Hints:
- The structure holds two protein chains of two kinds.
- Chain A is of the alpha+beta class.
- Helices cover 29% and strands 41% of the residues of chain A.
- Chain A has helices at residues 2-16, 33-44, 73-82, 140-147, 154-157; strands at residues 19-28, 49-55, 60-65, 86-101, 105-109, 112-116, 122-132, 159-160, 163-169.
- In chain A, strands 1, 2, 3, 4, 5, 6, 7, 8 and 9 form a nine-stranded mixed beta sheet that branches.
- By secondary structure, chain B is mainly beta.
- Chain B has one helix at 2-15; strands at 37-46, 56-66, 71-80, 89-106, 109-122, 139-150, 153-164, 180-193, 204-216, 222-234, 238-250, 258-268.
- The radius of gyration of chain B is 19 Å and the shape is globular.
- The interface between A and B is medium-sized, with 27 and 38 residues.
Amino acid sequence: MKKLLLFVFLLSVFFGKAQFKSATLQASGLTCAMCSNAINKSLKTLSFVEKVDADIANSSFLIIFKQGTEINFDQLRKKVEDAGFSVAKLQIVTVFNNTAIENDKSVTVEGKVFHFLNIKSQVLNGEQTITIVDKNFVPVKEYKKFAAFTKAESFKTGQAQGTRIYHVTI
Amino acid sequence: MLRLLFISVLVFIVSIAGAQELYVFTNPASNIPAKAIAAKLSMKTMKPYHYVNRREYRLMPEVQIGISKKIMLTAAGSFSNMFFEEGMRFESIRLYAKYRFYSKDDVHKHFRAAAFAAGAWSNNPLVYQELNLDGDNSGVQAGVLATQLVNKFAATAGVSYIRQLEKKDKLFLALPFSNEGVQYNLSMGYLLFPRNYTSYNQTNFNLYCEFLGLKNTDISRSYLDIAPAVQFIFKSSTRLNLGARYQLAGNAHRMAKQSYFISLEHYFLNALK
């Protein structure tokens, strides 16, 4: 009986858990396949990346995450920068389960703190795409535009009390 | 030669629309990817003016290392039968470092600026007023580069100070040697094929046109070359370059006024941990 309860509990935890499935990353600063290949190979070295599909013409990469691994969005950005380029857009497909979000408020999803900007209060369920709007994840212009939506100090530093805060929008 | 010049100028007028900056004779302000190693083998050939009909060759093996996104290092050597030698022999070594200090990226666009420094040791005697660290001279060089890439078109401007370090007139030529000069270049590249990207296995074809100049600053000598080149990129990692240099103007004493160039280059991405 105890075991059954534990099983049900684990099941509910498993299904109740939010999940990062994939990301679409657009890089900037390149046009040729050789440069795109450098980013492609660089992203593939990350332990939490299962697969990368490149759209060379649009400098865009579909990244499938390995399930059950610790995903690090800053590492994605660093790999693009190491290849010599920048991130223009990073969108993450996340499966939500009754996650209530409010404008200019933080919420923890799968161990990551997301601070939502420029959104309406709502409850997220199922697959949703969120876009990171932090510094160096969007062009400077875009970053400045989002700065107008918050007074949070974390938007400047990307951190609050030593914790990484990802500023995102829908 | 005039026809070639005309064609290369025409191609550039037609094609100012849209890559590339992987120049055949010079460097862009961009670096190779961090943790990447590039291996390159180049050959330069020319008929030197001081023989009636002899072709000379220089072989230049080179290794480039991406230390970080901002710093890359290059180590190169050269072997040749130039400088009145009968056969091929070891000639020089060169070290080169480049630091990218400015980078602004947009989708399909970038502007970058970099500073570089180089030093070379060569066992060749001082003969010519052309100064270079490709094998001819022992010397030092430092300069800046700026690159603008827009869609399929890239242009780079570079200027540097070069100083040769040989003091002796080993061959007793009693010519007015030059110790220093300003090297400059304007390089342009265009990605011609593929017109549409579908995979990393497509062969890319790039056209280049570079203007390469030197103004000796201690004596009143100079030259300006035009250097057209074509480039094939295989599997997005191996490059084959074919190019030529023709002197457009100048009065500097040089080994030859025209030369031809071929190189093969391969990128090993993520080669360093």
